[in-house]
Amino acid sequence: TGTLTSPTFVTPALGTPASGTLTDADLTFSGINATRLASGCFVYPSANLGCSGGGWTQMNMNLERFDLAGEYVVGAGTTTGRGRWTTVTAGYYEIKVQCTFVSMPDGKKMMVAIRQNNTNIGYGRNHSGLAENISVATFTHVNLAVDDYIEAWAFNGDGSSNRDHTSGNNGTTFMSITRL
To answer: How far is residue 76 from each of residues 1, 20, 58, 105, 169, measured CA to CA in Å?
Structure first.
């Protein structure tokens, strides 16, 4: 909550606009860590990443375009917390995940999933057409509590073949989280 300490607003007559100014210096806050009010990230891989054939693979987003409150832990693997975004501010969030699979053979299934606390909360699914690069995306809106975590996962339906998902800052494979 905020408290006005030196307001300069003039109460207008009905139908006329307010006059005066209000600056950040005019507000004081008690018990709020202002850096935790902003929450969200946009992360993506720096290189093409392998996605095991016939199974789910956690998407290793190791670069950040932004991470507003330091909630994303870069990397993937067996170390707890890597490749996941853990909220420090409860609230409603929009979460988007996209993965572009490289040279998928005709008729193969590809999926992406958004996982909250290791439970799937959003799916995207596609089938390849003509041995091409195919993108699969999903998004959801969710109410998160403090310490809930989000991960991006991809499924490659190409049997035993290892298919890369594309890299780079061009937005073809990414996870984006925005506090609403």
So the answer is: 38, 52, 7, 27, 18
